[in-house]
């Protein structure tokens, strides 16, 4: 059975019959061979090997690893594949897995095993020198590619990363969204408190995959030559902070065969951008593909440059910030408990009044302060979370906080005003609680007061009571 499994694994890694459909838009001076291979867990993945039409024997090859995204098709990296193939390389691009990978679930070791399956496939292609096959990773692939390169017997000859990050994924994402908000003119507690806290709670709840992956120990184990490329206008990776950390990690492992290059007028993916990184054009930055071709030739012939850094200084307006794990009192579980208590406290008051009216019992005349606590608390809680999730979903370089008043989004200011009114109404209700007409009314008001008491630290934590 083991022999049969091995034979099947080899068969599934072989190219499909010639004449299979090539990726759309492939230039006439290039050829494509469709391949299928096994990724981690035996998942079948499909890709294309793109080569020059007059490819020479013994040529280098490179596997391209996608950035973040579920089931990203190979065509997303066609521009990079075409650019590298025109430099004399054979390039394997493949459809990213969707099984086991989603917005809330992913494993970098799993993605690294997928990439290694692609590397093994490319090394078997006719005309490709198996000793000259490397790996290239974009963005999230910048965490995956070095991990694959450190696997024993990976066969990887070199590593190229673009828009890569030496920070943890959670810290990178929190920085990107905060930087996007600041770029849109937002500041204050929304950016400094609410946004990072939301990411910390999401990570604690298991909804942010691989949040604390540490790339530096992985980079310290990379022994292959490394080419790292950043666009000067990278809005998703801190482009000023990351390169020194990359260099320190590589040198800590004794690897000085690295080349860092910064491209002007280029974005996160080293594509041209006309507006400082917000819009990505289809064209690669001038000289990017040529750099890859020249550097791969040097790296695969044992002449990789040593500690070479060049290009204009990257633009990074603000530093990244720590996003540590939550303490027990701010954990996702405690946030859920607090949310349930607040909803019961604030929602229970009108519900009880409605039930009493339906049963034709005297519901009493609710005070203005009680109404403000109930309605204001519900609006602040539900509206606050709705707005925060909207912000992070439109975060990063395309942050859209809505209309602004100074450096504060109008919607956030409105939520803060509601929160202040809720606290003030709670104080008024505390002062009048003993004068409530009936015992039942005192119980209902007591529940509202308890909710208001819990609401104060909750609103402070989420920045609704902070400037």
Automatic annotation (TrEMBL):
A Pfam family per the record? Peptidase_S9
Domain Peptidase S9 prolyl oligopeptidase catalytic positions: 112-270
An example Gene Ontology molecular-function term: carboxylic ester hydrolase activity
The signal peptide annotation in the UniProt record is 1-20
> Where does the sequence pass through the membrane?
332-356, 368-390, 410-433, 445-464
Q: Which InterPro entries match?
A: AB_hydrolase_Est10, AB_hydrolase_fold, Pept_S9_AS, Peptidase_S9_cat
**What is any one GO biological process for this UniProt entry?**
proteolysis
Please provide the record's keywords in A-Z order: Hydrolase, Membrane, Signal, Transmembrane, Transmembrane helix
Q: Which domain of life is it from?
A: Bacteria
What is this protein's record name?
Peptidase S9 prolyl oligopeptidase catalytic domain-containing protein
């Amino acid at each position: 059975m083991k022999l049969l499994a091995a034979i099947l694994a080899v068969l599934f890694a072989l190219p499909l019959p010639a004449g299979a459909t090539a990726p759309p838009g492939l230039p006439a001076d290039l050829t494509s061979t469709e391949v299928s291979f096994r990724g981690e867990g035996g998942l079948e993945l499909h890709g294309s090997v793109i080569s020059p039409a007059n490819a020479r024997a013994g040529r280098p090859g490179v596997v391209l690893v996608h950035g973040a995204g579920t089931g990203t098709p190979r065509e997303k990296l066609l521009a990079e594949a075409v650019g590298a193939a025109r430099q004399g390389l054979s390039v394997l691009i493949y459809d990213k897995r969707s099984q086991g990978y989603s917005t809330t679930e992913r494993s970098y070791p799993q993605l690294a095993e997928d990439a290694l399956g692609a590397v093994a496939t490319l090394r078997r292609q006719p005309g490709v020198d198996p000793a000259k096959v490397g790996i290239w990773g974009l963005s999230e692939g910048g965490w995956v590619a070095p991990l694959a390169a450190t696997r024993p017997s990976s066969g990887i000859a070199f590593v190229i990363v673009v828009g890569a990050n030496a920070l943890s994924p959670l810290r990178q994402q929190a920085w990107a969204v905060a930087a996007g908000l600041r770029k849109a003119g937002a500041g204050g507690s929304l950016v400094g408190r609410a946004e990072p806290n939301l990411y910390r709670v999401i990570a604690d709840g298991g909804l942010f995959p691989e949040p604390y992956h540490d790339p530096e120990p992985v980079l310290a184990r990379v022994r292959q030559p490394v080419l790292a490329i950043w666009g000067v206008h990278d809005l998703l990776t801190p482009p000023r902070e990351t390169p020194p950390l990359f260099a320190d990690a590589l040198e800590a492992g004794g690897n000085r065969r690295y080349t860092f290059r910064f491209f002007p007028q280029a974005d996160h993916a080293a594509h041209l951008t006309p507006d400082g990184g917000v819009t990505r054009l289809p064209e690669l930055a001038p000289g990017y593909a040529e750099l890859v071709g020249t550097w791969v030739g040097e790296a695969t012939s044992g002449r990789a440059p040593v500690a070479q850094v060049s290009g204009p200084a990257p633009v990074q307006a603000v530093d990244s910030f720590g996003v540590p794990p939550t303490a027990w009192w701010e954990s996702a579980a405690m946030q859920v408990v607090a949310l349930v208590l607040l909803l019961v406290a604030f929602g229970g008051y009108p519900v009880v009044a409605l039930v009493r009216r339906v049963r034709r019992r005297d519901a009493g005349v609710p005070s203005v302060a009680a109404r403000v606590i109930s309605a204001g608390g519900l609006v602040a809680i539900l509206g606050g979370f709705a707005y925060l999730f909207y912000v992070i979903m439109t975060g990063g370089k395309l942050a859209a906080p809505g209309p602004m008043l100074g450096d504060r989004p109008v919607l956030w200011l409105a939520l803060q005003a509601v929160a202040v009114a809720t606290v003030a109404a709670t104080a008024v209700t505390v002062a009048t609680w003993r004068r409530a007409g009936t015992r039942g009314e005192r119980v209902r008001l007591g529940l509202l007061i308890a909710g208001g008491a819990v609401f104060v630290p909750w609103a402070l934590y989420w920045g609704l009571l902070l400037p």
